Amino acid sequence: MNKLILIGSMIILSLTLFPQEIFIAQSLVVNIEVPVRVFRGSEFVDNLTLEDFEVFEDGVPQKIEAVYLVKRRSIERSEEKKRFSPQTSRNFFLNFEVSEYSPKLGQALEHFVQNVILPGDDLIIISPLTTYRLKNRALELKSKEEIVEELKGLIRRDALAGNSEYRNTILEMIALSKSLTAAIKSGVIDRIPTRGEETQETLPEQLDSFSSAKFGGLELDEQLIYYQGLLHKLEILRRVDQMKLMEFAQFLKDKEGQKYVFLFYEREFLPQIEPRIINEYINLYQERPDILSTISGIMDFQRRDISFDVEKVKQAYADSSISVHFLFITTPRDILPGVHFEEHSEDISSAFQQMATATGGFVESSSNPASLFQKALDASENYYLLFYSPKNYKADGKFKEIKVQVKDKGYRVIHRAGYFAD
Q1: Using CA atoms, how far apart are residues 328 and 265, in angstroms rounded to an integer?
Q2: Which of 42, 157, 272, 358 has a C-alpha 20 to 30 A away from that of 386?
Q3: DSSP element (H, E) containing 162
Q4: Are 235 and 348 in contact (CB under 8 A)?
Q5: Measured between alpha carbons, how far is residue 390 from residues 29, 257, 319 in Å?
Q6: Are 370 and 108 in contact (CB under 8 A)?
Q7: CA 47, 50, 52 angle in degrees (round to 5)?
């Protein structure tokens, strides 16, 4: 027993006296991959070499270890000071944030299936109702025409079912806006009675049947309160969940290969009571501070705040090394008598545009989603993969900003904004 204790003591003493002989100092080597797209106007520049690029991390120049030119899934050219094994497999995510299906969306899907996706590519469809994944052997077992028709049917059905509550809320807001506007225009309102006074008839008989049936039994002050409630409901329905955004970013980060997210986002219009009608109601309600408060609340709802931390989400998606392509569908404004349609998509669309830019993605708007999708696909098909090892790397959890530029050229260079050193 004493001998064992003595041997143990000698081992501890040797570790204490000669730690340099036991432990060898190692530096942590981290390789950062940066997909880069370089354009002259709208044309991709495919003749650049390793020496043409410069990379900066937090403003500090970095040594580029390798550059690969990739077209679709093939490495067309490589220059290596250090050998890497780039993953060029493709993961496509088509996210449809739309309230209605249109034939142009069908054309977008047709172009994608017929001309872009290849056997071995991974495809996930995110509809307004649920998520679908194309089976691995689908392109071998079914014709492309069959797959296109199946996808069209899924998006058409889910756009209708997944947004039914949203559309019904919009329809109610339209009906209320028409009702409140018609009441003023018809001249049936001379003065809104104070509480306790007998209420006079406020709705004209010539209102459309939906408005009359739905709101004919409500006083004007009750209609305003109902309208405010619909605004609140609409905000809940369209609220973006930051936690889900962050979870999706982490899911994408863990996937190997190149990752492309195409976000179809439809322009939104909010049915509103015309501003001049609101002003008339404010004048009529001078004796009713409770109603003035309701009107003030309605006006406050029209000034929307973004429901998530844009900077945090941008960094998370840049860190995931993906390309988010934001396709803003500029649906035309409806024209209905008595209803003022105000665009209210700028809060979310602006945030998503920033997110796409932070990932080196494509951002454009058009009323034609098929054209938008084709341009985004063309822009994403060719790219360079740059690899570098950061100088004095520290796993401090901080976000490191990346800047890539082409020497002595006025090219447009797009890439992800950075990564977390974790």
Answers
A1: 5
A2: 42
A3: helix 144-162
A4: no
A5: 8, 21, 15
A6: yes
A7: 70
Question: What residues form DSSP beta bridges with 74?
Answer: 71
Report d(CA 58, CA 197) in Å as an integer. 69
Predicted confidence at residue 13, as pLDDT, reads 34
Please name which of 324, 312, 322 lies closest in space to residue 265, comparing C-alpha atoms.
Answer: 324
Q: Where are the beta strands (DSSP E) in 102-151?
A: 122-126, 131-133
Q: For tokens 């909010």, name the residue.
A: 270
List the beta bridge partners of residue 61.
56
CA distance 34 to 286: 62
pTM value > 0.90: no
CB proximity list for 385: less than 8 A, separation 6 or greater: 33, 34, 35, 36, 66, 67, 68, 70, 86, 88
pLDDT at 214: 60
In the numeric block, which tokens belong to residue 275?
Answer: 């501003």
Alpha carbon distance 51, 45 (integer Å): 15
Q: Are 400 and 375 in contact (CB under 8 A)?
A: no
Q: How confident is the model at residue 6 (pLDDT cuts 50, 70, 90)?
A: very low
How many C-beta atoms surround the C-beta of residue 316 within 10 A? Answer: 23
Q: Please state whether beta strands 340-343 and 269-272 pair in parallel, antiparallel, or not at all (unpaired).
A: antiparallel
Tokens 């004493």, located at residue: 2
Structure confidence at residue 402 (pLDDT): 98
21 vs 124, higher pLDDT: 124
| Token pair recorded at residue 379 | 């822009």
Q: What is the mean pLDDT of residues 5-23?
A: 38
Angle, CA of 260, 263 and 267, to the nearest 5°: 160
Task: Report the share of the chain in percent with pLDDT over 90.
Answer: 53
DSSP calls for 340-394: EEEE--HHHHHHHHHHHHHTT--EEEES-HHHHHHHHHHHHHEEEEEEE--TT--
Report d(CA 394, CA 258) in Å as an integer: 26
